[in-house]
Specification:
The protein is α/β, with parallel strands linked by helices and about 300 residues long. The chain contains 11 helices and 12 strands. Strands 1-4-5-6-7-8-10-11 form an 8-stranded mixed beta sheet. A two-stranded antiparallel ribbon has the order 2-3. Helix 1 runs parallel beside helix 2, helix 7 packs parallel to helix 9 and helix 9 packs antiparallel against helix 10. The relative contact order is 0.10.
Length: about 300
């Protein structure tokens, strides 16, 4: 099956069978996100999904975990999801876990009985773009939820036995707010207890709506040294989860189970932070054509002093 757009899934889903069930993201409004901006959201017909299941089965595939794509497959209407889950079970009777991305709204749109039925049909984990524990940042970034709404919907899926895994972003609160963001996000995560936390430290993509805010001076980005400090503090504060922290712009990935691996991870952060000291601040800005930092331009434009 030809895949449209960018493959987007959590790193721990690398071994899962990626089954496209829709194209794009039907929300598509988060200011920092460029993943699906060029795609019109549409639900793939069941016949197409079924053909892909048969293709993989006929090649001898026998996945234990299926990941439904694209951005936030849990946005599909309940009946449509039931159809897909039923077909997965018919094709792969040994598959017991179906995972996918979700938004808070996509959970709220389903009743408790529907959530229970989806769990019984194999939905075992939802990845939620929690991003931050700060409500003003969620509102600024045009996320579809605030913290209270997220907590309420997470509790509803956990009550029916569906795990939740969190996606967060260091740097999302902007310059000077790294510590505040780490504390608020850690408090949110320690209360809601995700099975894993993936930190995709903020990238400022020149095509993202957020970059227009950088240009207009309404969002002042943190540099990578502050983002690393934020991630270090988060690592210190998180209680009991698996943390995978990506800082691609400075070629760093630190992961481990907390609290077991805390000291080793903090040491890795300390080493990475030490490397940034005494250097010009680095900003994780990328553009489609160059893929490189544009720090000099930022200085010229007066975005940073
Ligand atoms: S819900 Fe996810 S995929 Fe959709 S716009 Fe927001 S971050 Fe991007």
């Amino acid at each position: 099956m030809e895949y449209e757009g960018q493959i987007c899934r959590a790193p721990m889903e690398r071994g899962a069978f990626m089954l496209p069930v829709s194209v794009g993201c039907c929300y598509n409004r988060c200011k920092f996100c460029t993943l699906f901006k060029h795609l019109s959201y549409r639900i793939l017909p069941i016949s197409q999904v079924e053909a892909e299941l048969h293709r993989v089965r006929d090649m001898g595939g026998n996945p234990k975990t299926v990941f439904l794509g694209d951005g936030s497959a849990f946005q599909l209407p309940y009946d449509h999801l039931v159809e897909i889950l039923t077909r997965i079970r018919a094709c792969f009777p040994e598959c017991r876990r179906v995972h996918m991305d979700a938004t808070v709204t996509s959970i709220a749109q389903k009743s408790d009985a529907q959530l229970k039925e989806l769990a019984d049909l194999g939905v075992k984990r939802l990845y939620l773009g929690v991003e931050t524990g700060l409500d003003d940042v969620l509102a600024f970034m045009d996320k579809d939820h605030n913290s209270a709404e997220a907590k309420a919907q997470i509790a509803r899926i956990q009550a029916v036995g569906i795990e939740y895994a969190a996606h967060i972003m260091t740097g999302i609160a902007g310059a000077g707010r790294g510590e505040e963001n780490a504390r608020a996000t850690a408090a949110f995560l320690n209360e809601t207890k995700p099975v894993s936390v993936t930190n995709f430290s903020l990238f400022l993509h020149t095509e993202a709506p957020l970059y227009r805010c950088v240009e207009a001076g309404t969002f002042r980005p943190a540099d990578e040294a502050e983002n690393l400090q934020e991630a270090r503090l988060l690592t210190e504060l998180l209680e009991d989860t698996v943390l995978d922290s990506f800082h691609d712009f400075v070629l760093l990935r630190i992961r481990g189970s907390l609290p077991k691996d805390r000291q080793r991870m903090l040491k890795q952060f300390d080493e990475a932070i030490a490397k940034q000291q005494g250097k010009e601040p680095v900003y994780s800005i990328v553009c489609t054509t160059c893929g490189q930092a544009e720090m000099r331009d930022l200085v010229q434009e007066g975005v940073r002093s």
